[in-house]
Amino acid sequence: MEIVKYILLGFSLAATLGPITVETVNRGLKHGFFPAFLLNIGAVVADGVYLVLIFFGLSTFADNSMFKLVLTIFGVLVLGYLGVGNIREFTKDVKLTKNTNKTFKGSLLAGFIINMANPMALICWVGFYGVVSATTKNLTNIKLLGNLGVVIVGALLWGIFLALLCHVGRKYVNEKIIKVISLITGLFLIGFGIYLAYGLKELI
Fold first, then answer.
1. What is the pLDDT of residues 41-90, one digit of tens each?
2. What is the 3-state secondary structure (H, E, C) of the chain?
3. Where along the chain do its domains lie?
């Protein structure tokens, strides 16, 4: 039951409307299952990196204003770059072509960078670290990391589900709809960036 609880926790975390969810929908409808899936693999790898760093003391930096400032600025730039890129696709002729290794590698890297550049991801994992630490019986470091790893598995399961959903949905969209989706997802990503930028005033 404990494993199921942590899987559902990770599933619920990943199911929130955030940059990874938005970009998964964008890539899944444009390119199909694997680019969307690899985007989530990249995000999960970033989660794992955060988890290990928190375990070795990164959580002590989570309240450091300078650290949060640098991470937030990086996040705003990444989300702005991706958002503008998606909006530019709205003005171009979109061709639903076969994927290449470049598409796969780009999706994997994009997922990793988006999550690493999102300060909210760090804050969430610091919070989960505290919750799991407080609720795990007979706590050992290995058990703590194992339970947090199960949370990551739950997040990955959501990514697989959403990627499959978008892959199936490709059958019902055309190039005009894809262009509109590019515009909407671009605006969402820029919106997330603006939201992060708004929080900078508290860090400066």
1. 999 999 888 888 887 776 566 666 777 787 788 888 888 888 888 888 77
2. CHHHHHHHHHHHHHCCCCHHHHHHHHHHHHHCHHHHHHHHHHHHHHHHHHHHHHHCCHHHHCCCHHHHHHHHHHHHHHHHHHHHHHHHHHCCCCCCCCCCHHHHHHHHHHHHHHHHCCHHHHHHHHHHHHHHHHHCCCCCHHHHHHHHHHHHHHHHHHHHHHHHHHHHHHHHCCHHHHHHHHHHHHHHHHHHHHHHHHHHHHCC
3. 2-202
